[in-house]
Amino acid sequence: LILTFLGVKSQITDLARNFDPKFQITLEEVENVLVVNVPEGTNKPYSVGGKFYLRYGPNSQQLSRDEIREFFQKEGLVLWEEKTNKDFNFDNDFNQQAFEKFLKLANISPVADKEKLLQNQALMKDGLIRNVGILLFCKEIAKFFPNASIMCVLFRGTDKAKILDSREFREDLYSNYDNAFEYLNAKLNTEYIIKGGPREEKLELPEDALREAILNAIAHRDYFSPSNIQINIFKDRVEVVSPGGLVSGMAYSDLGKISMPRNILLFGLMQRM
């Protein structure tokens, strides 16, 4: 029995050593039972023999190429915003006006040249612009990311049966944000308040809340998703739909209590603006 235990222990230990990255387990004997303690890994995902597996109930199934890519994206191990883009041409695609507006809003002095300023803000790597830089400084966002546009639709009544008007905004990030709000501003009812002086115009929904909803949709959306941001205007409500569920590691009970940005670099740049 002792020899059998030693042999099994050795086999299990050897199996654990084959994990990449390394994985620690503990073994203990309880009467005549060998107990293998396997803690939850802190450096996911783990592979065995160069292959990745996922547990489905009592079975372990090898992941396909697409499933591996989806898993890495879901765990936040592949960041869309940090990927560089070889198709972006600075001479043809760079929006100088959007760049100057960014510098002004972020209170950044334009003393250095453009490339240096972009590198200082982590928007370039190895001479190539990152995806987040394209969001901010492209002339037409849909040329590179059709899913990054903002679609605004005005419906008649309280359902989607009849469309009265629609607009899709496909420019740089700040222009799309600004244009989406102006669309809401034009389509929502406005109350005119006159109290002896210049009249006050008040939207039927709070302006600050509408701006915050659009900003959150842009900053926290899943840019791997093929869907774009949808702003739907009904007779009784406005819906701002942002692609992507909760950030990995966050539960619904955490909402309103903690902040876990999906796009950390974009979130930080938008805060500066």
Alpha-carbon distance between the two ends:
69 Å
Strand order of the largest sheet: 1-4-5-6
Helix vs. strand class: alpha+beta
* Helical content band: 25-40%
Tell how many strands the DSSP assignment holds.
14
> What letter string, H or E per element, gives the SSE order?
HEEEEEEHHHHEEHEEHEEHEEH
Integer-rounded radius of gyration? 26 Å
Average pLDDT score: 85
Q: Which sheet architecture does the biggest sheet show?
A: 4 strands, antiparallel
The general outline is elongated
- Beta-sheet strand percentage? 15-25%
The low-confidence runs, each spanning 5 or more residues with pLDDT under 50, are: none
Task: Please work out how many helical segments DSSP would assign.
Answer: 9
Which features does this protein show?
four-stranded antiparallel β-sheet, 14 strands, 9 helices, alpha+beta, 273 residues
